[in-house]
Amino acid sequence: MSANPLDTALHSLREAAELAGLDPKVIELLSVPKRTMEFTFPMRMDSGEVRIFKAYRVHWCDALGNFKDGTRFTGNLTLDELKALALWMTIKHGVGGIPAGGGKGGVEVDPGELSTWELERLSRSFMRHLPMKGAWVDVPGADIGTSEQTQAWMLDEYEQIIGYHSPAAVNDKPAAVSGTVGSAEATGQGVYYVFEQAVKDFGFKEDCSVAVQGFGKVGAVLAGLLYEGGYKVVAVSDIYGGIHSSEGIDIPRLQEHVRKTGKVVEFPGAEPVSNEELLELDADILVPAAVQSVIGEENAPRIKARLVIEAANGPVTPKAEQYLLDKGIPVIPDVLANVGGATVCHFERIQGLTDEYWDLERVNGQLKEWILKAYHKMLETAKEKDSSYRMAAWVNALLKIEASVKKRGWV
Ligand code: NAD
User: Fold this and answer.
1) Is 218 in the pocket of ligand 1 (CB under 6 A)?
2) To which H or E segment does residue 252 belong?
3) Degrees (nearest 5) of the Cα angle 179, 167, 154?
4) What is the Å distance from ligand 1's center to 141 Cα?
5) Which end of the chain has fewer CB atoms at under 10 Å, N or C?
6) Cα gap 320→306, rounded to integer Å
7) Is the distance from the beta carbon of residue 315 to the nearest atom of ligand 1 less than 6 Å?
8) Rounded distance between C-alpha atoms, residue 369 and residue 193, angstroms
9) What is the residue-level pLDDT of the chain in tens, covering all 411 positions?
10) Are 223 and 309 in contact (CB under 8 A)?
């Protein structure tokens, strides 16, 4: 059974807090959520029956700014998972230099069982019943089971309740409803900027080989950018399996194949590989961009890549990371590598607050600047503290949060 995500998040917090020399009172404050909200709401289904739904919102720490981040509509939602995610978002915002606190919430529901009208009513009901909300309070974004469309309904509901426009009250909305361009690609785009810089800093050749696990919102965008950038993407996979070609895969043709078949497997000219084999291929750089805990103690000794960049959340377990580090394989951590999505959410908020909407060039230009600033700061701290990049990124975030907590007089 995989570890409780909250225990994992708290373990990282304690380890990084010790390295940062954090005040014990600040550690105590950051080890518990500021508040957790558990609420229910009734909703009439298409059949006429009324169902009661269970919903949550966790606020971890708002020392750096108002609460912000995702909303999950999923059948197996637990409060501990949401608490862990809210803590991770608190840290991620700190790593990325984003003036926001960490929040996470959702509704216990399988959205696949809902009609479109039921999904609309659910999104609106969640927003109506959410106890605390607003552009300067808590800004829910999308996550598993939610989308641009659910976020557009949430914003519309909120604006109908308050009686005026407030586009910064909800994130991940479509550009047509005061959202931002570049939002859907932001995480993959951010990973790409980190990748490009790491290639230079870690001494790889410009045409180095890459294996990418996961071909969804993050992996497919990243693979496309790597191909355009002249890197050799030698393997990709999705939940059904993977493909490998030491000559490099034509990603635009693969995207066409996925559009037609729904899978990467059976792409002409490439050999099949399993997801497990993909991780162990002899590629220069490995980018897990699918799910958590795919590199564990068992397979870590077989990893041949010379650098791992975590595009997914938590793909390398703590014990596996230690093994890789001992073998001289650095890991660029999730809290830095995939912060592009959270960064562009902040840009979406700035645009909503100012009513000045940016073009894609400006969004991506600012994203590159912000994420590389955080990346260089992580490298600097790792050198100074002789630590892993993960601990360095956490230390940077924790020191920023501690400074605000103390100046506010919270401890
Ligand atoms: P997605 O659902 O769009 O895509 C996931 C991909 O992984 C799909 O290709 C799927 O087939 C594949 N996959 C699923 N289970 C798998 C398994 N067991 N083995 C191998 N492949 C599997 O998800 P996404 O939005 O691309 O997110 C990918 C990862 O990045 C997740 O860990 C997510 O938490 C993280 N992340 C995403 C964002 C974002 O903006 N979407 C932001 C930060 C972090």
Assistant:
1) yes
2) helix 251-261
3) 85
4) 17
5) N
6) 14
7) no
8) 9
9) 456 889 889 999 999 999 999 999 999 999 999 999 999 999 999 999 999 999 999 999 999 999 999 999 999 999 999 999 999 999 999 999 999 999 999 999 999 999 999 999 999 999 999 999 999 999 999 999 999 999 999 999 999 999 999 999 999 999 999 999 999 999 999 999 999 999 999 999 988 999 999 999 999 999 999 999 999 999 999 999 999 999 999 999 999 999 999 999 999 999 999 999 999 999 999 999 999 899 999 999 999 999 999 999 999 999 999 999 999 999 999 999 999 999 999 999 999 999 999 999 999 999 999 999 999 999 999 999 999 999 999 999 999 999 999 999 999
10) no
Report d(CA 203, CA 62) in Å as an integer. Answer: 39
The answer to whether the Cα torsion of 327, 329, 334, 339 is positive or negative is positive
Nearest residue (by CA) to ligand 1, atom 14, is: 239
Please tell me if the CB atom of residue 94 comes closer than 6 angstroms to any atom of ligand 1: no
In terms of phi and psi (left: phi > 0; alpha: psi -120 to 50; beta: otherwise), the region of 33 is beta
Mutate to test the pocket of ligand 1, among 217, 273, 278, 317 (most ligand atoms within 8 A of CB): 217
Polymer length in residues for the chain:
411
Going along the chain from its start, the domains and CATH numbers come out as 33-175 (3.40.50.10860), 186-337 (3.40.50.720)
Alpha-carbon torsion (364, 339, 321, 222), positive or negative: negative
CB 171 near ligand 1, within 6 Å: no
**291 Cα: distance to centroid of ligand 1 (angstroms):** 6
Tokens representing 227?
A: 């191909």
Residue 289 CB less than 6 A away from ligand 1? yes
Using a 10 angstrom Cβ sphere, with 0-12 exposed, 13-18 middle and 19 or more buried, the burial of residue 223 is: buried
Cα(43) to centroid of ligand 1, in Å? 30
- If you take atom 30 of ligand 1, which residue's CA is the nearest one? 312
| 95 residue type, one letter | V
Is the distance from CB of 298 to CB of 276 less than 8 angstroms?
no
Is the Cβ atom of 263 under 6 angstroms away from ligand 1?
no
User: What is this structure's pTM?
Assistant: 0.96
Q: Measuring CA to CA, how many Å separate 156 from each of 108, 128, 138, 181, 200?
A: 22, 11, 16, 19, 45
Dist. CA 71–CA 62, nearest whole Å: 18
